[in-house]
Design brief:
The protein is an alpha/beta fold. The two termini are 49 Å apart.
Length: 755
């Protein structure tokens, strides 16, 4: 068909049929249980982002034909996932049922068999006992077969393995009866906010190692940190750790320049001669360090200046002489392969395009540079080899720093050590999207639909993987990301774990409410997570706050992912009372708060209410009443309800009224969480120190100092204060007593909670 009819828009039913086939939820239910129908223009735009255009009848027909052909072909994809000891249905043509196959096991050996053919079901591959990435030969095809264990590596697994970590771990556990189910605790920290003498104004990996040692000495088994993903070295104003350039590499802003080359080398650079009239680097370094908030542009510029000077010395004294240190760098580059090389090339090109041409997104670069596989990119890397290697050098230092912090945690006695954080997406202008152009969605933003707390919805300005590309590319980009996140820790927290099942996508420039849910292959993703978790011997935590699809929490629990329970949300259905500790989940992490929510002191005083009003987030009420006064009145009732819960739990004295607004019951709140049957209780540093301000206020940009707050004192000084050490000692003791008293694990009732 051609002409005007072909170029006119297709009917709504056609667009919705294509969208449903592609995995979009045409109808969705909001937090108030109201059903909505996605606008056809929204679906048309989002389908284009998946490479399924349907803006005209002709294109819609072509897309339908493509989808029909894919369904009819039923060829095996590049990777199929399976679960140990379970038969696996294969998406193949019925004609192949009963065919013979062979499996080459990853660690040697092979398995041969014939596909099962249950009546009216898909052909079945017989159960495989050995987890791993095997090779399946079937009908002339060789595909990757990822066989996962039934669940992720768990806290119980980590504690069973902890005996081989070191003497400190064994000594600390010697006086405790062996628990039937582990119940440990950890500290949550914003890496950028850590302080140590000589840090230059940004928390670094050396400060992280220091915190790990102190935490382990106090009894902590885990240290959960903010994301360490790579940012933009050419744009220090992009510093939200949840909006990274790449989830495959590390944030070089946290590199301690003295860690690899010694304090004398750093001092030499800081004291190097400057141009007439310029301040010394040492003076600027000290000024940045003294600031109460991280000044990202100033601090990052200084750090890069220092690191570049150290790089030039490294090239002259180490690489030129082929020293062992240079050999280590070369080995790191070889191991990093094309992932490291792509990121380094991106960083070098990005600096030029931003600095010389004012271009801030790679899709606006010259076409020859916007494609990472274009020969011109290869030529650029050859002509700018020194600069490209500088960015590989920075990644080498960052990897060594994070590795050392995890090593310090484990050697000090932590059963888990660092729990790294995986952001839900990445900046579409970053190196991850540039390096994997066929795997990423374009011109859309990940977000969340309107709910009880964000009535306008949210668009986070992030992109992520296309589920169609995931399948067609054999999940290679997803596996690379998992391995990068697991590489330097004993655990991983998945931000917005709901995205494993579906993600709210918003067309670029549209209102956050004008989006749609796109379903993801959750079965495959959970199996790959479990497989990589087991291979790295690392636990997995899924942040499941928000509008949670039915059945998702049960699936996460079955696969061994810990979910998250937050004090503020553990309420009765009507919201009047707080859930007793004994009724908190046994398959979820328990914590007082998160980086996006008020601290104990902030919640108790209503500081979060005041902040939201200050930056214009308080909406006027139709009845004319003062919304701030009303919110503070409701908070007063909540304070009394929480205090009663503390009393009933035995962590606050009976017959005593709730403390005033300016005297938050920090110890009682922490003890309340410590009393839960959660296998891991996590205490944010902000609460351990009684701080009122939260790290991030969602919905704000510059109005609130998001991702900039620094701790009041260096780590060593904090742990010299008896207030912190006594608090940690009490919490550690309470967790041990709770473990001894706790009965054998069983399914605890899941309390109703606010989204």
């Amino acid at each position: 068909m051609s002409g005007p009819a072909a170029s006119s828009p297709p009917g709504r039913e056609t667009v919705e049929r294509i969208a449903a086939r592609a995995g979009f939820e045409v109808h969705w239910e909001d937090a108030n249980k109201r059903t909505h129908r996605v606008k056809p223009e929204t679906l048309t735009t989002l389908l284009a982002a998946l490479g399924l255009p349907c803006d005209t009848r002709e294109r819609a027909n072509e897309t339908l034909a493509l989808l029909d052909a894919e369904r009819a072909e039923r060829a095996l994809p590049p990777l199929v996932t399976a679960e140990c000891h379970r038969a696996t249905a294969l998406p193949i043509s019925p004609a192949q049922a009963g065919a013979t196959y062979r499996i080459e096991l990853e660690n040697g050996g092979g398995v041969e068999g014939r596909l099962g053919t249950p009546k009216d079901e898909s052909a079945l591959l017989a159960p495989i006992a050995e987890p791993g990435y095997h090779t399946l030969e079937l009908g002339g095809q060789r595909i990757r077969l990822a066989v996962a264990p039934p669940r992720c590596y768990t806290i119980d697994d980590a504690c069973r393995d902890a005996g081989g970590i070191g003497a400190a771990q064994a000594a600390r556990r010697a006086d405790a009866d062996p628990p039937r189910t582990a119940a440990i605790w950890g500290i949550g920290a914003q890496l950028y906010g850590l302080r140590r003498a000589g840090d230059g104004g940004i928390g670094d990996y050396t400060a992280l190692a220091c915190l790990a040692r102190h935490g382990a000495q106090a009894g902590a088994d885990a240290l959960a940190i903010s994301p360490t993903h790579a940012m933009f070295s050419a744009d220090a104003c992009k510093f939200s750790p949840y909006s990274p350039s790449s989830r495959l590499l590390l944030n070089i802003a946290h590199v301690d320049p003295a860690a690899a080359f010694g304090a004398d080398a750093l001092s030499s650079v800081l004291d190097s001669p400057r141009a007439s009239g310029e301040r010394s680097l040492r003076e600027a370094w000290a000024e940045a360090e003294a600031l109460p908030l991280v000044d990202w542009p100033r601090a990052l510029t200084l750090r890069l200046t220092v690191l570049r000077a150290l790089y030039e010395r490294f090239c002259v004294h180490e690489r030129a002489s082929a020293t062992p240190l240079a050999a280590q760098f070369d080995a790191f580059c070889a191991h990093g392969g094309h992932v490291l090389e792509d990121h380094a090339r991106f960083e070098a090109i990005d600096a030029i395009e931003r600095g010389q041409h004012g271009i801030h997104h790679w899709r606006d670069w010259p076409a020859s540079l916007a494609d990472p596989r274009n020969p011109q990119v290869q030529a650029f890397a050859r002509d700018h080899r020194h600069e490209v290697d500088f960015h590989r050098f920075l990644q080498w230092l960052a990897a060594n720093g994070l590795k050392s912090a995890q090593q310090a945690a484990r050697e000090a006695g932590m059963a888990i050590g660092l729990v790294t954080d995986l952001a839900v997406g990445c900046d579409s202008a970053g190196s991850h999207a540039w390096s994997y152009p066929d795997d990423m969605l374009r011109r859309v933003s990940v977000g969340a639909p309107p709910d009880l707390f964000n009535q306008a919805g949210q668009a986070w300005g992030l992109t992520t993987f296309s589920p169609r590309a995931m399948r067609s590319q054999g999940f290679s980009a997803f596996i690379d990301m998992l391995r990068a996140t697991f590489a330097h820790g004993g655990g991983m927290r998945i931000d917005h774990v709901l995205g494993l099942q579906r993600l709210w996508l918003v067309p670029e420039g549209a209102s956050a409410a004008d989006g749609a849910y796109l379903r993801y292959p959750i079965t495959d993703l959970l199996r790959l997570i479990a497989l990589e978790s087991a291979r790295h011997r690392a636990i997995v935590i899924g942040e499941d706050l928000g509008t949670v699809p039915d059945g998702l929490r049960e699936r996460l629990a079955r696969h061994g992912l810990l979910r998250i329970r937050v004090l503020w949300f553990e309420r009765s259905e009507e919201g009047g009372s707080f859930t007793p500790p004994s009724q908190w989940s046994r398959s979820a992490l328990a914590t007082t708060t998160t980086h996006d929510l008020p601290t104990i002191a902030g919640w108790w005083s209503g500081a979060d209410i005041a902040w939201r009003d200050r930056i214009g987030q308080t909406a006027p009420r139709a009845d004319g009443r003062d919304p701030v006064a009303l919110a503070q009145t409701e908070r007063a009732a909540d304070r009394h309800a929480l205090w009663r819960a503390f009393q009933h739990a035995g962590v606050a004295p009976l017959g005593v009224g709730a403390p005033p607004k300016d005297q938050a019951p920090i110890d009682e709140a922490l003890a309340f969480v410590a009393s839960t049957p959660a296998p891991l209780a996590l205490y944010p540093l902000e609460d351990l120190l009684g701080l009122a301000d939260q790290p991030n206020l969602p919905g704000s940009i510059d109005e609130h100092p998001n991702w900039r707050r620094r701790l009041p004192s260096p780590i060593d000084a904090l742990f010299e204060d008896s207030a912190l050490t006594d608090r940690l000692l009490a919490l550690s003791s309470k967790r041990r007593r709770g473990t001894r008293a706790r009965s054998a694990p069983g399914p605890a009732p899941e309390p109703s909670r606010k989204p």
